[in-house]
């Protein structure tokens, strides 16, 4: 064992991408194992490696962790990205859960039938611009600080940055009415660990394509 966290998932974003983002933002190198067949996935289940028969799986500090949320909060706590007290942690949790709701729509988008794509894209735009992004715009404006919580870089900032870029891929002008988020995005992009993660050749995955969708359906088919 190299001591690096070991991530087992498909070679694509899915539910592992926020974990890759958070580790990268914390400056932690990791290894990846990619599932490409149903047999590989079934073997993990048969071997009792997956607590709830689900991936993502992250092997870290001698643990075999599953459940995205549990993995993320462990990493955030371990690398001091989870606020200074319970109140800050609660605020980070609220922000993160809100962003996760928006990201769920983006996660499912590649799997929607062709005739539903336009409608689903419109839903993402509507939710991002009316429900989610205004919350963060207001928070940044009200306290006039660079980060969302406690004027310190946290898990919430990382998750928001990931969401901004994911929505922008689909709706390039989505931040046009959010000046604070535009500034936030520029600052985040220039943080050394995030800047490195945004470079070509980093572990960041490209937007899901037809091959990724096909692989997901093949690996997880009932």
Automatic annotation (TrEMBL):
Where does the GST C-terminal domain start and stop, copy by copy?
85-209
* Top-level EC class: transferase
Instruction: Give every GST N-terminal domain span.
Output: 3-83
Note one Pfam family from the annotation.
Answer: GST_C_3
Q: Which domain of life is it from?
A: Eukaryota
**Which SUPFAM superfamilies does its entry note?**
GST C-terminal domain-like (SSF47616), Thioredoxin-like (SSF52833)
Q: Which UniProt keywords apply?
A: Transferase
The cross-references to InterPro entries, in alphabetical order and at most eight, read:
Glutathione-S-Trfase_C-like, Glutathione-S-Trfase_C_sf, Glutathione_S-Trfase, Glutathione_S-Trfase_N, GST_alpha, GST_C, GST_superfamily, Thioredoxin-like_sf
Q: Name one GO molecular function term.
A: glutathione transferase activity
Q: Which GO terms describe its biological process?
A: glutathione metabolic process
The record ties this protein, via Gene3D superfamilies, to: 1.20.1050.10, Glutaredoxin (3.40.30.10)
Query: What EC identifiers does the entry list?
Result: 2.5.1.18
Q: Which PANTHER family match?
A: GLUTATHIONE S-TRANSFERASE, GLUTATHIONE TRANSFERASE
User: What family does the Swiss-Prot or TrEMBL record give for this protein?
Assistant: Belongs to the GST superfamily. Alpha family.
Protein's name according to its UniProt entry: glutathione transferase
Q: From which source organism is this entry?
A: Platysteira castanea
Q: Which gene encodes it?
A: Gsta3_1
């Amino acid at each position: 064992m190299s001591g690096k966290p070991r991530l087992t998932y498909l070679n694509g974003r899915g539910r592992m991408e926020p974990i890759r983002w958070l580790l990268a933002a914390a400056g932690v190198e990791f290894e990846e194992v990619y599932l490409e067949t149903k047999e590989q996935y079934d073997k993990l289940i048969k071997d009792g490696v997956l607590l709830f028969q689900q991936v993502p799986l992250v092997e870290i500090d001698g643990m075999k962790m599953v459940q995205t949320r549990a993995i993320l909060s462990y990493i955030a706590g371990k690398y001091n990205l989870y606020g200074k007290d319970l109140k800050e942690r609660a605020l980070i949790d609220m922000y993160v859960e809100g962003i996760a709701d928006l990201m769920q729509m983006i996660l499912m988008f590649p799997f929607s039938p062709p005739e539903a794509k336009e409608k689903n894209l419109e839903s993402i735009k509507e939710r991002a611009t009316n429900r989610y992004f205004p919350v963060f715009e207001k928070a940044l404006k009200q306290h006039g600080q660079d980060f969302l919580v406690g004027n310190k870089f946290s898990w919430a900032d990382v998750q928001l940055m990931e969401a901004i870029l994911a929505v922008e891929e689909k709706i390039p002008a989505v931040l046009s009415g959010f000046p604070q988020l535009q500034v936030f995005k520029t600052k985040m992009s220039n943080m050394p660990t995030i800047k490195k993660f945004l470079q070509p050749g980093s572990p960041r995955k490209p937007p899901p394509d037809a091959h990724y969708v096909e692989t997901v359906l093949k690996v997880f088919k009932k």
